[in-house]
Amino acid sequence: MNMTKQRTIVKLGEFELALSHPDKPIWPEAGITKLAYLQILAELAPYLLPYTSGRYLTTIRYPEGIHGVSFYQKNSPEPTPEYVRTAQDGSIRYVVLDSPQTLLWMGSLYSLEFHVSSNEIATPLPNTWMLDIDPSLEEEPRLMEATAYVGELLRSLGLHAVPKTSGATGVQVVMPIERGPSFEDLRAFGKFISEYLAARHPGLFTVERLKKNRGDLIYLDYLQHYTGKTLPAPYSPRARPFAPVSTPLTWDEVRRDVKPADYHLLNIRQRLSEQGDVLAAAPRQLLAPVLASLPSSL
């Protein structure tokens, strides 16, 4: 990437993108301008794109930075450049975020969050199981304790999953799986896991859907991973002060009680250069035998 004296041009190989307002503060507390954001996105692309390619994209755009007005966007912004691939689902023409060029274009339009569909475009059978751990409190000191309980239960079933911060207040536990089980199967498994934990730790967890009835309990949302539902992609930034990033963790980090705000746009590149993507390294789990072994619960 570089900048000419006549006008600001973002370059990525042969690709060029004209950039307006390069000095506009996007995350003012972190000192991240629009140009700096695109430079970081270019470095994050190899890690983010594997989780957004092949899925329907919903973005949240903040034309004046994180403290300004925002809006969700599902339909591809117009005009859509030729290099941007789209996919139709019903009446919506979604962007398919599958190239660095598309990522930079979206960033130039102040897309600060990248949420992707649980379902893939090309196949109805999921390749991931996920449980959303959603605190009722804005700052939940028991968050990593709760995450550890989920991990321990899965390990007791012979399964390995990867926790990732949402980048906001919660955590998603992500388990890459071999294709076979349907979304209905995965939802039933998530219900079993969630109800078991809520019964085992009633002062910590709830499966109550209505937020007003949860008190200070942590909601285990097994319903969010389903066709048409979205969650922030791994390595998506979040439009919150100091630019947190949805970051896969090790279980050692969970035991050390790390905080979602510990991982952000200013340090995520160093983390990835030092230890790589711990989610990409996770082996796919064979969930079908576990589902078959729990017939009375499922």
TrEMBL record:
Its EC number is 6.5.1.1. It comes from the Bacteria. This is Non-homologous end-joining DNA ligase. InterPro entries: LigD_pol_dom (IPR014145), NHEJ_LigD (IPR052171). Keywords: Ligase. One of its GO terms (molecular function) is DNA ligase (ATP) activity. Residues 33-278 form the DNA ligase D polymerase domain. It holds the Pfam family LigD_Prim-Pol.
